[in-house]
Amino acid sequence: MTVPLDSAAQLSQLLTSGEATAVEVAQEALRRIEASEPAINAFNHVAGEAVIRQAEELDKRRSAGQPLGRLAGIPVAVKDVLCTTEMPTTCASRMLRDYMSPYDATVIAKLRAADALLIGKTNMDEFAMGASTENSACGPTYNPWDRTRTPGGSSGGAAAAVAACDVPLSLGSDTGGSIRQPAAFCGITGMKPTYGRVSRYGLVAFASSLDQIGPMSWDAADNALLMSVIAGHDPRDSTSLPAAVDDYSLAVAQADVRGMRIGVIRDQLENPGLDDDARQAVQAAIDVFRDAGAELIDVRFQYSRYWVPTYYIIAPCEASSNLSRYDGAHYGFRSLGTREVVQKFGPLMAMYCHSRDDGFGPEVKRRIMLGTYALSEGYAAKYYTKALSVRRLIRQDYDDAFAKVDILLGPVTPTPAFRLGEKMDDPLQMYLCDLFTVGANLAGLPALAVPAGKTADALPVGIQLQAAPLHEPALYRAAGAFQQATEHHTRRPPQ
Ligand code: GLN
Known about the structure:
Number of helices: 18
Bound molecules: glutamine
Radius of gyration: 22 Å
CATH topology of the domain at 8-254 and 481-490: Amidase signature (AS) enzymes
Structural class: alpha/beta
C-alpha cells in the first residue's frame, strides 16, 4: 500500500480504519526523507528512531482502544526556530550549533498532546532573516519544483519538506512573509495567523511585535487541521489573545463565498515590480471568486510604498535587542578571540566580540547594525519612532479597507522562485521579496497564501488572502471555495 505523505486527511483515514499503522507511516516518512534530502536539504535534523518508538506507542494505544489526539500518527516537520527538548534548536546559526533547549515551545507541546509524529527540524535563513534559505549555516535548501531555484524563506525547509512530499504538515514562522512567500514558491498553502492567535512561547525571537507561527500544507483542509491544534490562548505569552478558537476545518468545508465582499488590492496589481505570471494568477482568481458568488471590489492602500521601509526599521530594531543575548556566555557557541584583541580590550570584551563575530552570519550582522543604528541616541526619533507612527497609518489603511470588504485578495510575491545565488549580493533586492507580505505583520492580521497557478517554466505562483484580526475563518472559507473550484493545490513536483 502506498502511504500518502502529501495528505494529513488521507493518512488519518488510513490510520483510523486500520489500513495503515503509525509505525508504517513513520517508516515511510523517514524513507522518503532519506531519499529526497540529498537533492533538497530541507532538514537540519531528522528524529529517526525516536519517531519509530513514538509510533509504536501510538499503535499500542490505538489497539487498546484508548482515545488519540487529532494528529495521531501524522508526521509533522517544524522549523528549526522552535524550541524542542528532544532535538537540537539551531536557528540555522553557528551561534546555536548543537543547542538543546531545556523546554518545548507551546506549539510543540500542543503537537505532542495531539499525538503528532515530530519528525524533524527544518532548514531556514539564520534566525529567520532572509527570503531564500540561503543565509543558513546548514547550506541552502533547494526548491523541489526546480533545484536550481530557492524554495523561498525564511521557512524554506518547512515549505520544501511539504512540497517534496516528505511530510504532509509543517510549522513555519512569519515575521515579514516567511510562511507565505516560501508557500507560494513551493506551490503549497501557508497561513500567517493573527498576531497573538498562536503562542510565541518557545519561538526564538526575531522581531517580537511581528513574529507568528503558522501551518504549511498542500491544501486548506490540512492547513486548518494543524491551525486548530496550535491556536489558542497561552498564559506564557503575554501577547497571546484570550479569544476562543474558531472551527477552522468547518470554515474550509463550508467553502462558501456567496455574498462575500472581496477587495482586490489594485495598487499591488499595478505595481511595476509585479511579474506577469503573478498578476495573471490574481486575475484568474478574481474570476474564480466571482463565479463562486463573491462580490469583487477595488481597494487602494495609501501607504503601501512605506511597508518595506517601515518593516526594515522595526524588524532590525527588535532584532538588535533580541539578539543581544547571544554573547558567548549564555549559549553554546564561544570564541575567545585573538591574543591581540584580548590584550587590547581584555578577555571578557574579546569573548563577546569574537563570539558574535564568528557565531553570526553576514545578514544577521547587517540587521543588528541597522537596528542598533536606528535605535541609537539622536537617531531613534528619526527612524524607530517615525516607523512606529507609519505603522499606525498602515494599520489604518487596512481598517478603512475592512470597513468595505470582508477579505482582501492580492499577490504573495512579486516574482516566482528565483535562482539560487541570484540575490545574495544585493540585500535590497532580497528585501523587495517582502513587498506584498510585510503589511499583514505590521498590522497584525491574518494572511493566507494559496497555490494559484504555474508559470510558463512550470514554477508555482500563489495568491494572498488577508482578513481583519481573528477573521481566519473567512480566509479558510474563501480558500476552501477556491480549492473546490481549482486544482492548483493538487499538483505535485515531478519526482
Ligand atoms: N524576508 C523577511 C526578512 O528577511 C521576512 C523574514 C521572516 O518573515 N522571518 O526579514
